[in-house]
Amino acid sequence: MPRKSSSAAKKEQEIIETPAPLKTYLNDEELEHFRQLLLKRREEVLRDLDILRSSLSDENVEDSINSNYSMHMADHGTETMDREQRFMFIARDEKYITYIDQALDRIRNRTYGICIKSGKPIPKKRLEAVPHTAVRIEFKQGNKK
Q: Does some domain include residue 135?
């Protein structure tokens, strides 16, 4: 069996010794505030998703009733573009739900409010504006690596 180089062994050791994420600096009351904020946004997005999905299913029923031949070609193109846009909005909202769920997990794990890239606290002002965030603003803007 080949021996690992000292640099490979050192890298492996660094990976193993990586500290666990820091615990939040927020108190229980603040965590509950952000949890409620996230749950409210989650509920709003789920409501929007229901509306978008139902509009697609209503449209499918109408399409089966009306033949595409009875519609002008330009109208058919507009309908197709609108349908594709709704699919895009659905995908965007589903991704947003994932971010919200991950933030709720961080609250449960008591790591919420800590940047996953730097380990530094995320300012409360940023958390109020973007409660699902996992990074400090400088990492979102791509200024630091």
A: no
Per the domain annotation, does 81 fall within a domain? Answer: yes
* Predicted confidence (pLDDT) per residue in 69-109, tens digit: 566 667 667 787 888 999 999 999 999 999 999 999 999 99
pTM: predicted TM-score of the whole model, two decimal places? 0.71
Given a contact cutoff of 8 angstroms between Cβ atoms, the answer to whether 109 and 23 are in contact is no
Percent above pLDDT 90 for the chain: 59
Q: What is the domain extent for residue 50?
A: 24-110
The span from the CA of 4 to the CA of 17, in Å, is 18
CA 108 – CA 83 distance, rounded (Å): 38
Residue 34: Cβ within 10 Å count: 22
How much of the chain is in helix, strand and coil states, percent to nearest 5?
70, 0, 30
Helix/strand/coil for 39 = helix
Interhelix angle 73-109/28-65, rounded to 10 degrees, is 160
